[in-house]
């Protein structure tokens, strides 16, 4: 019998957005804006607040992600758990003011491979799409 090796992986995406940190922060923390780029939600920017992200159900998924706010440092850092059952990952968004705008670093950490290989692949794809939606939202909200 062979021992299966477990590896913990993260999805990390960094983008410079031509907007001030305050504007990016609003899009990350206001429920009606989160809905436009991510999913429907009942988010509140308070440490310990439990919230649910909601999307259309598909086979093998009810369309709900249970989350909890872990860290709030206005205009700098937002972290929340992503999925209470099984996945157990953490999403951390870090904002850094740079020349010409804000660098956004999004990391979803805690994927246990190989068991969560499908979830890791889905997050890798999904966050590219979600952050593209965020950029479009910020461009429209000039």
- What are the secondary-structure elements, in order, as H or E? EHHEEEEEEH
Radius of gyration: 16 Å
Looking at the structure, the CATH topology is Alpha-D-Glucose-1,6-Bisphosphate, Chain A, domain 4
CATH class: Alpha Beta
Helix content: 25-40%
Residue ranges: pLDDT <50 for 5 or more in a row? none
| Full CATH superfamily name | START domain
**Principal-axes shape call:** globular
Write down how many β-strands occur, each being a DSSP E stretch of 2 or more residues: 7
Regarding quaternary structure, what we see is: single chain
Distance between the termini: 60 Å
Q: Approximately how much beta-strand content do the residues carry?
A: 35-45%
Average of pLDDT: 92
Total domain count: 1
Q: How does the major sheet shape up?
A: 7 strands, antiparallel
Q: Count helical runs.
A: 3
Structural class: alpha+beta
* Widest beta sheet: strand line-up: 1-7-6-5-4-3-2
CATH architecture label: 2-Layer Sandwich
Structure description:
The structure is a single chain. By secondary structure, the chain is of the alpha+beta class. It has one domain: START domain (Alpha-D-Glucose-1,6-Bisphosphate, Chain A, domain 4, 2-Layer Sandwich). It is built from three helices and seven strands. It has a seven-stranded antiparallel sheet. It starts with 6 loop residues before the first strand and ends with a helix.
Summarize the entry for a quick read.
This protein is of the alpha+beta class.
Which descriptors apply to this entry?
142 residues, alpha+beta, Alpha-D-Glucose-1,6-Bisphosphate, Chain A, domain 4, seven-stranded antiparallel sheet, 3 helices, 7 strands, globular
């Amino acid at each position: 019998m062979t021992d299966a090796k477990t590896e913990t992986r993260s999805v990390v995406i960094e983008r410079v957005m031509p907007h001030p940190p305050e504007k990016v922060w609003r899009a990350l923390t206001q429920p009606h804006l989160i809905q436009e780029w991510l999913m429907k939600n009942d988010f509140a920017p308070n440490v310990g607040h439990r919230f649910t992200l909601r999307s259309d159900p598909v086979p093998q998924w009810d369309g709900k992600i249970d989350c909890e706010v872990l860290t709030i440092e206005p205009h700098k850092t937002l972290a929340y758990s992503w999925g209470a059952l099984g996945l157990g990952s953490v999403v951390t968004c870090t904002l850094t003011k740079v020349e010409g705008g804000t660098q956004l670093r999004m990391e979803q950490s805690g994927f246990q491979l190989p068991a969560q290989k499908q979830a890791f692949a889905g997050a890798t794809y999904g966050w590219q799409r979600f952050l593209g939606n965020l950029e479009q939202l910020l461009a429209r909200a000039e």
